[in-house]
Amino acid sequence: MRLDNFVGTMLVISMVSPLTACQKKPSATLHAAEMSHSQTPVKSVLNTKDLGLLPLSDHVSTTVTLDKNKQCTITPTVLKTGDLQLILTMETTGTDGKTIGMNVARVVTKPGEPFDVAIGDINLAFTPHISIQ
What is the distance between the terminal CA atoms of the chain, rounded to a whole angstrom? Predict the structure, then answer.
């Protein structure tokens, strides 16, 4: 009789565990204004580049050269909420001009508000300004 209980219990566990193991988690969007910042200063190994006020146009990519072998392409999209989604693509090239590394980040922020984002080994800081078309 104990063997039947054991087999029954194992059968129930084997049927339930696949249902709990594969749960889809909702994706999250990083909002620049909601990023948490530590109260304790931490020395960063990232090189910070402040681009200042950066004029952008909705759905038009802008490429910024950061040094002789790094450039960042920023593609803005004004969302229905009035927020601004930025896709940043950092490309690093070798001395031969071939791509040796690429990093991509997606950030949602407010137009006209300064923010910074770490992408690759650079921390980019700028204030996005959307031109009215």
Answer: 79
Residue written as tokens 């129930």? Answer: 12
116 inside domain: yes
Nearest Cα residue to 68 out of 33, 94, 107: 94
CA distance 121 to 83: 26
How many folded domains does the chain comprise?
1
* DSSP annotation of 57: B
CATH number of the domain within which 94 lies: 3.10.450
* pTM of the predicted protein model: 0.65
Does residue 2 form part of some domain?
Answer: no
Question: pLDDT digit string (tens) for 24-51?
Answer: 344 344 444 444 444 445 555 678 999 9
Residue 56 contacts residue 73 (beta carbons within 8 Å):
no
Host domain of residue 77: 46-130
Which of the four pLDDT bands, split at 50, 70 and 90, describes residue 120?
A: confident
Cα(117)–Cα(126) distance, integer angstroms: 9
In the structure encoding, which two tokens stand for residue 49, read together?
């580049």
